[in-house]
Amino acid sequence: MKYYLIAGEASGDLHASNLMRAIKEQDPKADFRFFGGDLMQAQGGKLVKHYREMAFMGFISVIANINKVFYNLRLCKKDITAYQPDIVILIDYPGFNLKIAKFIKETLDIPVCYYISPKIWAWKEYRIKAIKKYIDLMLCILPFEVDFYKKHNFPVTYVGNPTVDELSARPLANETFEEFRNENNLNEKPIIALLAGSRRQEIKANLPDMIKAVSEFPEYQAVIAGAPGIEESFYAPIIANTNISVVFGKTYRLLQQSEAALVTSGTATLETALLQTPQVVCYQIGGGRFTYELFKHILSIPYISLVNLIANKEVVKELVAHLFSPSNMVYELNQILNNKTARSEMQKGYETILHRLGAPGAANRAAQEIISTLNKTIKTPK
After folding, report:
1. In this model, does residue 198 exceed pLDDT 90?
2. Are residues 314 and 297 in the same domain?
3. Is the pTM value of this prediction over 0.70?
4. Interacting residues of 63 by C-beta distance below 8 A, sequence separation 6+
5. Which segments of 135-287 does DSSP mark as H helices, in order?
6. Cβ(80)–Cβ(101) below 8 Å
7. 3 has a pLDDT exceeding 90
8. Looking at the domain assignment, is residue 382 inside a domain?
9. What rounded mean pLDDT belongs to the chain?
């Protein structure tokens, strides 16, 4: 069967690539065409547009690149129409993907699956109308999403969380600190990991103050997890005149060897939790307290980190907007590095999260649901 996938950023590329691998195991004749990245391309098929040419973050960036956005939409619609897939699989990226879903349902007789729900439970809840109208199959990866969609009378399936899969299958899970240190030319000091985001704007906003905070812990060495698609030269001026190292393609290994981490909100907070590394969630937002209070009224959720949302309580501290400062990071780092009770309570919370997420196998279960849907809906192969 023919599958068209759309992923608009690095995390989507990762999750979609795992889904493609699982689909191939269950459908050996699977043919893929996609908007995505290098990991998807490694699974085979045709890469039509790389996500690096699509990842515009924030209103200003989108407006500045509006011609590219419209071009990408036109290209995607035209390509799907020409390819005539058996199913279109959308991976998060709602601003783009919901427009494509609308086009497909209004123009083409093709089922649409969403793997990894847009975060409409956090904000823009009105998008549920579009999802109910244009999406045939919703496969969720967060347990609390099921209750959200039930509230709106829209049937969904929880397939498990792909981060659990990735961590359970990660290489070098038994690596020692000395092995990691020697490979990456690090010293013998314990590590504080810095995960400053996956986009350039995020890194520029978050990393300088993170560096100021860890400079107050000379008995530790700070190591940055280099973001996929960001070249080493981008970090050079930020870490100039420091002893901070950057490692690429080794985030799980870095976190596993770290005593603590400063992490921007996103999937990275969940990865850090599942690796049992104490963390502080840090995210710089302009506007200070005003923005913070505004977001409290806009957002439909009590927390911004997946860790706290899954646990449904504060497991990790969230330093956002006016709370994001080197002094606050220093205080919270002191707590998780030197307060045994605080450190232990955080790791107990991590265990709760792992239990709620369930066993590995998200991509395989998602592939089963997709192929089962196709078998029910496709009467005559194309």
Report:
1. no
2. yes
3. yes
4. none
5. 143-151, 162-168, 177-183, 200-214, 232-235, 251-256, 267-274
6. no
7. yes
8. no
9. 90
What phi and psi values does residue 11 have, to the nearest 5 degrees? -65, -40
Burial classification of residue 348, based on how many CB atoms lie within 10 Å of its CB (0-12 exposed, 13-18 middle, 19 or more buried): exposed
pLDDT at 380: 45
Cβ atoms 55, 8 nearer than 8 A: yes
Name the residue type at position 337. Answer: L
Residue 67 belongs to a domain: yes
According to DSSP, the residues that pair with 225 across neighbouring strands are 247
Whether residue 146 is contained in a domain is answered as: yes
What is the distance between the alpha carbons of residues 347 and 309, in angstroms, rounded to a whole number? 16
CA angle at residue 121 from 119 to 126, to 5 degrees? 95
User: How many domains in the chain?
Assistant: 2
31 shares its domain with 146: yes
Residue with tokens 């427009």: 99
Angle subtended at Cα 177 by Cα 249 and Cα 269, rounded to the nearest 5 degrees: 50
- The verdict on 276 and 350 lying in the same domain is yes
Q: Is the domain of 128 the same as that of 182?
A: no
Q: How far is CA 176 from the centre of its chain?
A: 27
- What digits encode the pLDDT tens for the residues 80-123? 999 999 999 999 889 899 999 999 999 998 999 999 998 888 87
Are residues 73 and 210 both part of a single domain? Answer: no
> What residue numbers bound the domain in which 208 lies?
170-357
Residues 133 and 175 in one domain: no
- Phi, psi of 239, rounded to the nearest 5 degrees: -100, 10
Whether 145 and 181 share a structural domain: no
Distance between CA atoms of residues 36 and 45, nearest Å: 11
Question: Which CATH number characterizes residue 223's domain?
Answer: 3.40.50.2000
Phi and psi for 201 in degrees, rounded to 5?
-60, -40
Name every residue whose Cβ is closer than 8 Å to that of residue 272 and which is 6 or more positions away in sequence.
193, 195, 255, 261, 263, 279, 307
- Tokens 């194309």: give the residue: 382
Q: How confident is the model at residue 382 (pLDDT cuts 50, 70, 90)?
A: very low
